[in-house]
Amino acid sequence: MRKSVPLNIVKSLLANSKNECAFKGCQHPIINDNHLLIAELCHIEAYSENGPRFNPENSIKEINSYDNLVFLCHRHHKEVDSDIKTYSVTELKKIKQEHEKDLKEKKVFHFDFERFLKINDEFNNFWSDLQNLNDNEHIIDDLKIEIDTKIGFDKLIDKIRNDLEWLDKNHNELIKSDQELFEDVKKFVKENGGDIKKWDEVRYYDNPFLDRNWEQHNLGIPNFLNKIKVNLLVVELKYFEEFSKTNKLTEQLEERIKNLKTELNEVAVSTGLID
User: Fold this and answer.
1) CA distances in angstroms from 144 to 149, 156, 270, listed in the order given
2) What span, in angstroms and rounded, lies between the C-alpha atoms of 98 and 100?
3) What are the tens digits of pLDDT across the range 200-209?
4) From the record, what ranges are coiled-coil (predicted)?
């Protein structure tokens, strides 16, 4: 039975990986935005007898040691194992050393990897089970609200914003419908032989068809939607604040964070309740 790599070795390798494939120039992450392990823990000198760069003199402890292991993306793992002449033991150890060299003089940030891996597994299982429930176990499949457990945070925020825009649009249509209600009633009564001569003389505050639901349409709902939009901006920026502490940001994300800060600065001094 193949023995697994000791957890303390995995912790050290992850801590020194900078969350990147060790191959020079490759920025493929070890752990992605959804906290999934998406790289591969590779043996420099193979575990199995028929594996690349296998050394029969190594003990199991030496095979699973820190010095004989490196994190690579799938592409570069395949590449180095397919060309052992170019990627010899010496060359792979040099690649690993180059990748880690700027960490040697620094105090490496340590955190509880055992807890991290445990939580990661628990949530992976939860999201997988949840997706299965939504896909296959809903009591009325044609009417279910679909859940995408693999959606990224930024895409989820965009989706919520689209839903808020839909609410805004439909709310405005309801306002228009209420504003036209009195004329529609008059037209209906007139077309069916009713007498509406005195209707226009009724004062607006005594007319149940004029300005119907005015406060909800013009104060309550707009204020509530604005509060949701402001809080959503705060949630998004707070998420990216934490994300940026442990992940390298793309240009696209840096631009998104910059725009969020600008928008929140404007909101902080200009957005208020309608009264």
Assistant:
1) 15, 18, 39
2) 6
3) 788 877 888 8
4) 243-270
Cα distance between residue 220 and residue 214, in whole Å: 9
pLDDT tens digits for range 55-99: 999 999 999 999 999 999 999 999 999 999 999 999 999 999 999
- Yes or no: say if 21 and 73 are a contact pair by the CB < 8 Å rule: yes
Cα separation, 204 vs 255, in Å, equals: 51
Q: How far apart are CA 230 and CA 223, in angstroms?
A: 11
Q: φ, ψ for residue 39 (rounded to 5)?
A: -115, -175
pTM (two decimals):
0.52
